[in-house]
């Protein structure tokens, strides 16, 4: 007679993989998605078999469907190791001169830094806009907040500044130490 060792499965392991994927899709932010995926082998298996679909869904729910193209460009500018002048020109043509759409799907590896940057930038933009609106000549009798359009313009400016720093900090095309 053979001895059978039966491992007790927890409630989550007994669920169909599709249900575990739906649970993962209901997570509210990308960082929590990472934590959930790493919490147990069963959830990791469910996540890894549909990573792009789940991550894209969570990221779009968290940030909105229109992840700024500039956020994608910042991510890509970080990936350039030692950009040459030609490499910088190619990058600018691809990401800044043309209006190429944001990716329609995201991996967790790409979504985490984009979301982290977006959160940091959102807080910075809020503080920046509030500071600017309390100074002359913008100070109004009643306090106001920037419109969504104004916030988008400020966000875009800071994203582009980050892109500039990423491209030229390592390139040697512009030498910051000489100035």
Descriptive notes:
With 179 residues, the protein is mostly helical. 64% of the residues lie in helices and 0% in strands. It is built from nine helices and no strands. It has helices at 11-14, 17-25, 30-37, 41-48, 51-63, 69-79, 85-97, 108-133, 148-169. α6 (69-79) packs across α8 (108-133) and α6 runs parallel beside α9. The radius of gyration is 22 Å and the shape is globular. The model has no long low-confidence stretch (mean pLDDT 82).
Task: Give a quick rundown of the structure.
Helices cover 64% and strands 0% of the residues.
Layout of strands and helices, then pairs:
Blueprint: H1 11-14, H2 17-25, H3 30-37, H4 41-48, H5 51-63, H6 69-79, H7 85-97, H8 108-133, H9 148-169
Helix pairs in contact: 2-4, 2-5, 5-8, 6-8, 6-9, 8-9
Task: Fill in the keyword field for this structure.
179 residues; mainly alpha
Uncertain spans, ≥5 residues at pLDDT below 50? none
Category by helix and strand content: mainly alpha
Main sheet record: none
Number of helical elements: 9
Number of separate strands:
0
Q: Terminal Cα separation, in Å?
A: 83 Å
Tell me the Rg in angstroms: 22 Å
Order of helices and strands: HHHHHHHHH
- Beta-strand share of residues: under 5%
Overall 3D form: globular
Q: Could you tell me the mean pLDDT?
A: 82
What level of helicity do the residues show?
A: 55-70%
